[in-house]
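Summary for the funding panel

The consortium committed to producing paired sequence-structure records for every protein in the target list. Below we show the first two records in order, beginning with the earlier of the two.
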Amino acid sequence: MTQHDKTLSQDTLPQALRSAGFHGDIDRDTALLSAMSTDNSVYQIRPDIVVAPHDSADCAVIAAVLSRPEFASVAVTPRGGGTGTNGQSLNRGLIVDIRRHMHRLLAVNVEEAWAEVEPGLVLDDLNDQLRPRGLFFAPETSTSTRCTIGGMVSTDASGKGSRVYGKTSDNVLALQIARPEGLLSSNEVSPEWAAPMLHRAEQAARGGRDAFVANTPRLNRRFTGYDLERACPPDGRFEWWRLFLGAEGTLGLITRIRVKLRRIEREKRLLVVGFDGFRNALSSAAPLLAAEPTAIEVMNETVQKIASDSGLLDGLPPALRAEPDREIAYTFIEFNGNDPAAMAARIARCRKILADLPGADTIHQASDRSEIKRLWAIRSGSVGLLGKVDGPARPVAFVEDCVVPPENLPAFVDDFRTLLTRHGLSFGIYGHVDVGCLHFRPALNIDSESDRDRLVAISDAVFDLTQEYGGIFWGEHGKGVRGAYLRTWIGEEAYAALQAVKRAFDPEGRFNPGKLTGDDDTIMGIATTPFRSFNAPDGDPLDRAFRCNGNAQCLSYAHSIPMCPSFKATTDLRQSPKGRADALRQWHRSRAKGGADDQLEADLLRTLDSCLGCKACESSCPVQVDIPTMRTTFYEDYYSRHARPLADRLTLITERMSGQIKAVSPILSPVWPLLAAIGQRLTGTQDLPSRLAQRPASSLRLSYEELATTSLPDGTVLLVQDWFTALFDAQVLEDIADGLRALGYRPRVLDMKPAGKAALTLGDREGFDRMAHALSVQLVRAAETGAPLVGLDPAFVMMLRQDYPKAGFTVPKVVLVQEFLVRELETGKTFPSVLYDTPLRLLSHCTEATAVPQSGEMWTSICQTIGIKTETPATGCCGMAGLFGHQSRHQSMSATLFNLSWRTQVETDQPVAATGFSCRCQASRLAGRALRHPMGLIAEALRR
């Protein structure tokens, strides 16, 4: 065991940090280490320890403690959103998780148009906070929902609109960094202790500046990272902080950033153009620049087909949707400005240019900002979908952000495509043609040694090709392990200067070692850095864990987006689909070797226990990393070797016996409060329903046995219950039945049979199979009557739709009530109407909102037909999720989630309805408000 291993395997470092006043989190949890081992690249490096500082002072403590001789061998690497495509934030030693706590907007100066932020602040979060002030931070990345400002600074990130707004480095005004001696800010007078370090850095930068300038092409997407040119401006100043822009954490810890802001332009337009082929779409860029657009981006036919097959292009106007025999390459052209007349002139000029371009078949213009946002989301969402392909080879990001002069782009792309075709590779292409940057993602199987050899060969060839066309190998996504090419690209003299800058700030070479600069034997290479496992065996139930590519849409900061609630509540990477997938892969490998890592299993149990099972990951993740389903597989294996907790056994018994409990509910009702109290103590829960629902009226009930002998009149709707609503929520049955009657239908409720939700969640596959088989048989019998089947609770309906087919059960379609009613309207059904002026606020269950994203629009259409105004605000998870919100160990997370997006929606004077049983329970217990199902309010309105 090396001294490094001894240092990190004992409590020495954590104790030293605490003793020095570190207030943040310190973790060696194996699930978290697995999560921190990967990013959005094909690489995997397992760290030894993770710390999450609370503020700049904590970062200074880290720097001070690690400067001690006993910790000299500990590598230190900061990590933001972990969206890097080239292993930028992967390393051994200590990972500094900046995002978890350091995500505050510290100051805004509206007059001077700047803001100061902590580096863990997410880009969209910053811009959402700036929007009311009429300002924004310009670099717009496709990962804007989860990438951090610190990560953008460290990689000098770019994106849409960079031709006008510049890269991140063009929009930073000052930095603060943490040193062992304290904090150093570039916009304050430097303390005396910093003078020797800054002097050495200046000497190195000035000595290599001319060679640096001579070897960097003059492009819009300029080369940065140890930017010797701008660090030493012609006026003789030394702006040391510019060396950190694009340095990828190799010079130290950034703790505070002053960013330049821009005024939000009043006018915005977007043209989406469908071309008959990618070559024509690509060739359109140069002539379109004459119309002065803010951005021009393209998608080739491969990306279009993947997006179309996934339903993402359903948001496009019908004329722009591809047909089976008609592939389309898309060009997105955005215009921004303040003068409507000038905007109209630019649009007119653009249309005139398009009229003369070959292959421009269809043009759609969007002026509404919400529509423009939706259309751009199609482009950005398509990136993640590139990983959603069948087979062991999948598109990989490793040569995807080369930049060449725009006039050289068509020829460069031709040669690039020829190269990939010669290697027999398929590929997707998208990107920013206005600045000469296209993203190629060749499909490789990283588990295959021959494909790893191809990765190296293609990287070498593309590097040469980029130089041939006067471009830059790293134009947008940073360098990471591709820094191995830096010495050849920048030249020996300039590279020596970069090495000297590194030594000035990091003499021990401990900050993100192996990246960008260093000794030849320490630099990581694209072939020598460990690769992550790419595929599971065919048919393996954990296949989706291996297919997680780190795109990390599950790490979106927005509270109104359901995925992923446990991560939103904690900002802890292990509490996310990506983190759980990483840990499941690690566990899978240990089990495949015939054993089980006890510590990993214990840590994995904890992180899976905090998953709310909402299934938003299955619906919203581009590659459908379905954590609840994979959790079932883990539990099934684990509990075949370990005893189940008493609480789980009681839950399984209750579900299995729920039909019998319902049958004797009149007898049990008087003693149910006592039974519920005993159950809470035995199961570690609280706020369980204290009353049993009474059986519905006999005129409403219909047993499955009666289906064969009962003639159902026209207009009959069969209502299907889950066990929770059947036992505890008589109101929802009454509301939906009343609403259907008021609309002219004859509702009947089928006897409840448990669907096996708890059994599936807890890994009791045998118990689930029994219940699922029994329910499936009865639902088929019900469907044979020809009457529509409508489920009472969205989570139950989605289980039948998502989980039953995966488990091999075929069931007739059970629809949500709004799906049924919209279908009726489409067939010409008319509903009675009322005058109802008070808007109804309607809140959807999160599982429903992600699996049926048009659900809110359906309710709006129904209510509008009846005469009821509605609001359907976007909300995340309410924090209940079945039993999760009742379990005592989850109370803090449950309440946090409710407060994030539900409380403000519920605490209002206007009528509020919620579609989910869990959501109504949560609103009652945490906000003291009894919400109704929307059908109940519709029934009341029609009665009035």
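The next record, for a separate protein in the list, is shown here:
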Amino acid sequence: MRLQRLNLFFTIFLFFAAFHAHAQSVSTAKPWTLWWWMGSAVTPEDITHEMEQFAKAGLGGVNIIPIYGTKGYESQFLPFLSEKWLAAMEHTVREGKRLGLGVDMSNGTGWPFGGPNVTQEMAAQKWKYLDGKFVAEPTRQQVKRAAPGGVGLVLDPFQDQAMRKYLARFDSAFAKTTLRPRAMYNDSYEVYGANWTTDFLQEFEKRRGYDLQKVGSLLQDTAGTLPSTLVRIDYQQTLSELLLERYANPWTSWSREHGFLTRYQAHGSPGNLLDLYESADVPETESFGTSRFKIPGLRIDPDYEVDRFGTPHPLAMKFASSAAHFSGKKMVSSETATWLANHFKVSLSQVKPQVDELFTGGINHIFYHGTTYTPAQEAFPGWLFYASTNFGLRSHFWEHLPLLNRYIERCQTLLQNSQPHHDVLLYFPIQDLWAKPSASGIHLLEVHHVDRWLLQLPFGQLAEQLWQKGYAFDFASDAQLKRLQSTPAGQLSSGSTEYKTLLIPATTYLSESTLAELLRLARAGARIVFAGELPKYPMGYHQHAQRQAAFAEQLNALQAFKNVSTGADWQRVLSQQAPPETWAEQGLTFIRKKHQGTSLYFVANLADQFSEGWVSLAALPGAVEKYDPLTDQSTLLPSRRTGGREEVLLHLLPGQSCFLRPAKNQKLPPAPVAARQKYPLTGTWQLASTKGTSSLPATSLPQLTSWTTLSDSAGYFSGTARYTLRFDAPAQVLKSKTLTLDLGDVREVAHVRLNGKEVGTAWALPFQLALNGGTLQAKDNVLEIEVTNLSANHMRLVDRQNPGWKKFYDANIVDITYRPFDATRWEPMPSGLLGPVQLLH
């Protein structure tokens, strides 16, 4: 019997050893994707098929999000957390281990948290003030975009034990599983109207020292008197504390107890984002809509309504990354490319600048938004989630998506394996936001419209100034200041990250506990700079007049320290303590990090001011190498010493990005001198389709133009066409040591061969490719350029002939203005090689 047990044990051991030997390691450097399961009408076969394609394309993982279903598939719906749903989830995790794909999942369906196990007593509440008393009433909000098995009321985020009761459903479910996801995901807040909870009055009095019921009229006073403002701050401070203590922290604790990491989109919350983001293992921000970058040739969807939806902003992204930097978290994620443009109209060249902006904002774990599970038998365009960019198998750029994925992987490999190297810690006085009246009664700190809250505050205006002038900085909350220590060298240490200076923006209100922390740090030798007016009032309505004198006295004591600076010359003092990267004023954005003991810069040119110039790197003296993650090539930058400063010559065109780091290998090839001369390639181009829909006539083109103008049917063509040109090259071009092929305007991806040799694929702005020596010849060069366009033109025909593909419940499918999707009204989008094509030498 003992021998049998030993043999059984040995067999099991060999099984798991073999399993793990075949299991691939999961990469967080590769981009991941949100993966919507419509109605959770999934099968093991199609799950495997899609995941195999994801792995081949260079994705690193998926986040399962069950949402509303597809009409006609009702019999295949799997109720959320049912035995069949859990079996599908476990199959996904198992296949992920085999394929090297990570798996996360939402802690619910749709968003925000809620569902069938949320009773009326657990559901979100709001207050009314009737006859001098606060009265609670339900918001009646239902889970948005819920999946089968997930319909129900939204959870009260301020109620004690509500989160634990909500998660009990998952306790029961996961007790039946052996395979589990890597992380739980909490989507953006979006609990509309909730501003109260069952024991709010008791908690308020315990925390603030007085009975809110007795001063209820002040909470509704919008006249801006000091008493009413102080009550309003107290009220929002209490909500913020309850949200952290009863919602964010219990969720994270539960997840860790069950072996999960947490990804938390705290934005949209009525609390301090820095504390909420920091409560998670992986803080997650969101890039929604299209930034208005001034990159020449960058296409912006004219239908996108900026006034309605806002645009991404790096300062909003810095709330998530600052929380991670301060607490030493390795990864900061982002929901990426949400509503970047209308369905079927997004190009890879539009995605890259948004990703680069996220990188400079401190993000290093990209999640595409996203892909929709689609049964293999479904015809084009398959199943689509309404508010997304389609990164799925039926996307028009799926063939070329590995190019973007490899670029992101190279960037994130460096960004995830390095630490923040920021000089300035900028204090976030959230109480000044709470002091402002709000139409809804509370302030929701959203990422979409930072112009409506962040940029209206002195804090936001100062942060924007620091960003534009090239300071490396993070944000810090009141709670985080309590953890700061001053080092013997006068640095500020969070325990994970060090900063040179604490910068305090102009603020009207300040908590006495924060003032006490500033005094503690000043006594320890920390450098503190006040930018603008000093605080006037201590926070808190309770006994405010009695506390005012002591507050003023402590503020005066703080100013007496030599290492504390106040006054109009704060900019001069700050620049001496923490020198900025002056070249940022030319429109370059960056993040500075420490990698293997030295400084590392990621620099992106998302404007049109800079192309080449001598720059001085504040944290990187000596020889510098430029690493291009697009080409995976490193070069040595020319250097010089001017006015006591070391400078390097940086060539970075609008739309390009690079890493700058110490040159450990002095034998690297020198960076090419910027091409100055242009040699236009003229002649007659031969055009012929190679694959695609509809019909594209073969033709000769004396001038490059959109192929949609060639015939009526060409306006519906989506696919690939080959442009061929024969040309001679003059002697001055042949003699050039640095040759670049500039394709001009490409709609949307161009694969290039010259004289039968592969040159490369241009998919990002600027559409340029380096030519290797010996590729060009004096006579009869043959240039072949295969261009792939978007699927938008084909959808004009599909939507007319087969509108039945729009068969989804709930939101069904809408356009970027949230109106019913109708491609039949679209004009043909320019397609093909528009040029001009030229050699730069």
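Regarding this second record: The first strand starts at residue 32 and ends at 38. The chain has four domains: 26-416, 424-577, 582-662, 678-840.
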